[in-house]
Amino acid sequence: MKESYADDTMKEKTRAYLREFIGKNLSFLKPKDIHVLHLPGPEMLEWEEVYKPLGIPAKNVTGLERDPAAYAALAERNHNVGMQIYRTDDVSFLETAKQQGRRWQIVSLDYVSPYNQRSFLYTCSHAYFLPGCRGGAISFW
Ligand SMILES: C[S@@+](CC[C@H](N)C(=O)[O-])C[C@H]1O[C@@H](n2cnc3c(N)ncnc32)[C@H](O)[C@@H]1O
Questions:
Q1: How far apart are CA 28 and CA 13, in angstroms?
Q2: How do the domains of the chain map onto residue ranges?
Q3: CA 37-113-103 angle, 5° bins
Q4: For ligand 1, which residues put their CB under 6 angstroms from it?
Q5: Confidence class of residue 103 from pLDDT cuts 50, 70 and 90?
Q6: What CATH number belongs to 10-18+30-102+115-126?
Q7: Is the model more confident about 6 or about 128?
């Protein structure tokens, strides 16, 4: 498990860009109506720097983590926050999510390695837009 993403300047800039992009382009949605799927990492920096400042409720934010040690750190930090977190890989989660008809306006997959084609196809075809939603964003970074 990588211990920290706090000193990664590119990630810091990308979080700021994502926050501004969502604030500008999804401003027609109320924060309470925005649902997010993302890879929070052990420190929950994406929650702290992107979704929390935008006022998106933690209960609307789903986080996936496949690494056991990173998940343990994430679960501890999330204890008083209340995001929906799952110890799983993205493809397994999205297979079930598809069957359950789950959708998100924002899908942000900050992989640590190049994404594989299966992840990409699952995300693009099944993981976005709640019924009746006029827009959304998918971000791979
Ligand atoms: C780069 S970190 C996330 C950093 C965070 N977004 C931030 O802004 O600091 C990616 C996290 O997702 C996990 N991860 C990577 N690929 C994954 C996958 N396919 N499914 C589930 N978790 C994954 C890694 O173990 C890692 O903790």
A1: 24
A2: 10-18+30-102+115-126
A3: 15
A4: 5, 11, 15, 39-42, 45-46, 64-67, 70, 89-90, 110-112
A5: confident
A6: 3.40.50.150
A7: 6
